[in-house]
């Protein structure tokens, strides 16, 4: 007989996942008796065991596992870096706010805070005036309504910079974007004119005529004024007939150049004023009433469009008669009180009958209308 093969030494080969029953190794009777439950009879001393041999892992799956682990670690590291960057950025913003708060004056009425600004111009440094608050304003008016004279009064104040009629240039008012860009430069003190006192200005602004894009984009501009805290100064003439005389005379001199071949919209001597006032325009009697209505409507529309802004309404005649109105203006702009002066001389003085060639026709047309009061002398100087 052949030998009995020892299966424990050379176990048969198995396929992956195959279940094989293997007998327990032989034990001594003493060991068997120790492991046999009490009361159990003699029986089998061997018990079956299940051995499951796992399949071999593929190298490709291991590589994929390592790759996924590396990606997870990379995402975690990036998130930590981003958090640290955000913390540093927030700290910078907080520092800026703290620096701006440092400039604020605790004695100022809290209701005025939205109208106090601390510009940081790009073209120069405000140096020791960096913490001096600046108020932003604009003068809304119509040509030949006394706005030029009024602006010279404001600019006689040590702390006021009113930069003239900046939107007379069409490119600056071609669209809303160009308008806002111009406004930003002016109110950031990066606009330079002969009137600029930028370093220590307490109020900065300009004059804006109603026919220079102001009415066309009134919604956007009013929103800009409210968001930026811009104060509006309305300046109009009560007597629109006098304004018409001034417009026609100025238009004539633009071509006639009565002052030694030079056109001047404003003069600084009585001699020059007398020379210009010698021209007497002829009023269009056919369209006179309609023209006055159109001017009146422009004024009313402007007052309505910008009624939501912080504003004050002034009239040229009131400023002429009562100079204490200028005290109100300085208070409105939060300025220290000063005596305001101007070198400009009024051109058309006295009664309107001395300045209109067809005065009798004008009198007949306006008599009995709402504009009859324009025929009266509203001031003598």
From TrEMBL:
Name of protein: Sulfotransferase
EC number(s) reported in the record: 2.8.2.-
Pfam family, one: Sulfotransfer_1
Sulfotransferase domain segment(s): 139-339
Alphabetized UniProt keyword annotations: Membrane, Transferase, Transmembrane, Transmembrane helix
Stretches the record annotates as Disordered: 1-44
Similarity comment text for this entry: Belongs to the sulfotransferase 1 family.
GO molecular function, one term: sulfotransferase activity
InterPro entries for this protein: Nod_factor_sulfotransferase, P-loop_NTPase, Sulfotransferase_dom
